[in-house]
Amino acid sequence: MQKNIFLSSEADQWFKRNVESLTNKVRSNDIIYQCVNNLHAKGRVLEIGASIGYRLAWLKSSGFEVLGIEPSKSAVEYGLSNLNLAQNELVVSDASSFLDQCSVKFDVIIFGHSLYLMDPDDLPLIAANTMRLLNEGGHIVIYDFDSEPQRKKYHHRDSLYSYKMKFDNMFTWSPCFKLIGKSIAQHDGSDSIGDVHEDCALSIIRRISIDNAYPVLC
After folding, report:
1. Strand ranges (E), 49-198
2. HSE (CB half, 13 Å, CA atoms) of 111?
3. Are 146 and 196 in contact (CB under 8 A)?
4. Cα distance between residue 150 and residue 131, in whole Å
5. What residues contact 146, with CB distance under 8 A and at least 6 apart?
6. In the 8-state DSSP scheme, what is residue 167?
7. Which of 67, 85, 178, 205 could form a disulfide with 140 if both were Cys (CB 3.0 to 4.6 A apart)?
8. Distance between CA 207 and CA 137 in Å, rounded?
9. Predicted model pTM
10. What is the pLDDT of residues 38-86, one digit of tens each?
11. Cα(71)–Cα(7) distance, integer angstroms
12. CB half-sphere exposure, 115, CA atoms < 13 A
């Protein structure tokens, strides 16, 4: 399975290829950080695919309680050594295993460009556990590819695929999870030109109450 390949080797290779850009991130240019900071003044945040934890460190400095998971042991070790994060704030894990075992509730759950590399068979469990762990009034923030379903060879390793879709659909089938914002751009951040292979979306989904999701109709 893809998660096993990433945990055993590919996630560390990804970190080695991208370490320079990861260490040069700027919070004022990070649309996910800006989004979360505008949605909540404080709260508990979980980031799936946290890399070295730079976004977690920014959110922590802004008053949030943070936890991130990342399949690259090298990225986690780098983040813990170089950023203001504790051992229990950035850990090595895959999404499906961690979410299935977690019992802590969160106000924000972030998927930062990670869903497209997960095993499609794992997505239903990931979605169910994400919905279970999100507080009422909380938000799921997704930044990922946005297209009709498609599969493509992962260009760094032949045994892996990227699986693209409209990932907000994982949650918005339920009336308790409402898409409240979505912006689309190309993978490099430039304006979308409608390229189905390059379009990415920042999707914001809010958990609403049962009463509002299922109103009594007269």
Report:
1. 65-70, 90-92, 106-112, 134-145, 150-153, 161-164, 177-186
2. 29
3. no
4. 25
5. 164, 166, 167, 184, 199, 200, 201, 203
6. T
7. 205
8. 5
9. 0.94
10. 999 899 999 999 999 999 999 999 999 999 999 999 999 999 999 999 9
11. 5
12. 31
| For helices 73-82 and 54-61, angle between their N-to-C axes, nearest 10 degrees | 40
**What tokens appear for 171 in the block?**
């949650």
> For residue range 141-179, what is the model confidence (pLDDT) as tens digits?
999 999 999 998 887 777 788 899 999 999 999 999 999
> 């009709």: which residue's tokens?
148
CA dist., res. 75 & res. 69, Å (int): 10
- The rounded distance, in Å, linking the Cα atoms of 17 and 143 is 20
Contacts of 186 (CB under 8 A, 6+ apart): 192, 193, 195, 198, 199, 200
Dump pLDDT digits (tens) for 74-109.
Answer: 999 999 999 999 999 999 999 999 999 999 999 999
Mind listing the domains of the chain with CATH numbers? 2-213 (3.40.50.150)
Place of tokens 């700027």: 26
Q: What is the 3-state secondary structure (H, E, C) of 10-40?
A: HHHHHHHHHHHHHCCCCHHHCHHHHHHHHHC
Show the tokens assigned to 56: 């977690």
| Residue in this structure with the two tokens 């946290």, named with its chain if needed | 50
> For 211, phi and psi rounded to 5 degrees?
-60, -40
